[in-house]
Amino acid sequence: MTFEEIQQTIEQMLAVQRELQESQIKQTQEIQLLIEQSKQHQRNLDKHERILKLLVPNSIASFDLEERL
Fold it and tell me: What does the alpha-carbon distance between residue 65 and residue 36 come to, in Å, rounded to a whole number?
């Protein structure tokens, strides 16, 4: 191999490595976004669950009171 061929091979290898690193960075960012979205969904579910726990017992108590009347 000539010096130029070796240099070209190294440049190609570095280009492939750079593409892999950029792909990994993008995947990491997408995973972080999915994790944050998942956490937000869990917070929303928790909030809705707390609201339902407040509303359902009150509705049941109100329903029982209406039945008694």
Answer: 44
pLDDT digits (tens, 9 = 90+) for 35-56: 999 999 999 999 988 888 888 7
SS3 content of the chain, % helix, strand, coil (to 5): 95, 0, 5
Cα–Cα dist 55/58, whole Å: 5
Greatest pairwise CA separation for the chain in angstroms: 99
Residues 6+ apart with CB under 8 A from 1: 9
Global pTM value: 0.62
Per the structure block, which two tokens stand in for 29? 């960012």
